[in-house]
Amino acid sequence: MLMRLSHDIGLYFYDVLVARFDLWAAFGVIAQFVFGARFLVQWLASEKAEKSVIPVGFWFLSISGGLMTLVYGFARRDVVIILGQAFSIFIYIRNLMLIAKDAKKRKAMAAAEAAVGAEGAAG
Question: Phi, psi at residue 86, to the nearest 5°?
């Protein structure tokens, strides 16, 4: 029984990794690497800051890898991948929008503080 199982597992992996491996499968693997790279970026940024942080690069890799995986899902006609990535991409984009909004607000506050400081120094 174990011999049959190991033979069947070997055939399965041969089918998946060799017989069915084509350009779209290679694209899908690359998409997964891009998507997975975001965790490496997040981990390195957290180690550098010595606390948990999510850098902007995490969201750009999320969008890039998510879009690539979405294209792969459409090419393979895989509804699970399509639904999973289609909705997630909106979340990634929204996070970038919130980061940009916060940066704009901080810049405006810093400019206002500088203006108040300049008035105080002149007066």
Answer: -60, -45
